[in-house]
Prior knowledge:
Layout: E1 15-19, E2 26-29, E3 32-36, E4 45-47, H1 53-59, H2 66-80, E5 85-86, H3 94-98, E6 106-110, H4 135-148, H5 159-162, E7 166-170, E8 175-176, H6 188-202, E9 207-211, H7 213-216, E10 228-232, H8 248-258
Parallel strand pairs: 1-3, 6-7, 6-9, 9-10
Antiparallel strand pairs: 1-4, 2-3, 5-8
Amino acid sequence: MHVFTSNMINQHKVSIFISRTEKGNNYFSHDKLFIMQGAATDKMDVLNISIEDSWKRQIAAEWHQPYFNDLVHFLRGEKAKDETIYPPEKQIYAAFENTPFDSVKVVIIGQDPYHGAGQANGLCFSVARDVRIPPSLNNIFKELNRDLGIAKPVNGDLSAWTKQGVLLLNATLTVRANQAGSHQKKGWEDFTDAIIKSISENRNNVVFMLWGNYAKQKAACVNRSKHLILEAAHPSPLARTGFSGCGHFSKANEYLIKNNIQPIDWRL
């Protein structure tokens, strides 16, 4: 059995370590979750997944749910097959690192991460500054211009929104390279349901932007009597109905101002 010293424990993070033992049982230890199964070996795989402390306090119970155990085993299987997974492991929980629980004002829900090389960064619809703006994000920028008169940004980095309280959350947090939807129905949806329910139950006056049928399913997790739900078609050019004209950015700010909450500066 592996021995983990105290300097491996960071009280502000939750990480998932995947190892193997002859007994094939699970071992939970405070802030760290060690998943051990399979044949005995000295090799330990590490899924470098961490979550910001305020979120950990809200959803710590999820680490112990059977679905999460199944999800970890699935991801371990992907690694064992040398599958390329996006986003990079250190960015899987980037949405939570950028936007602490008590700071959330707006939640934008995507489907799953971009599946092209170098695109996904853990924030739905966002890409790094040096990555070409994807078609869906380009349509978001067009609506931003139509709705608020904001000029199209020169890059697709949305991190400035996250620092103001916009949680950019994909329903599925990982994807196999070049295979859209490949990590759906593996457990991530249950996890993000728990995230949204926690926000709904423990926060007030949050705006939820649900774009496309996949995101709209999350409406069932939100208490409409204390939050605003805005629904529209997906911004993808492939969507059957248009995303243009939804006016979600101005509507979100109107709602926030009405409830004495600082609005979002949508400029990038």
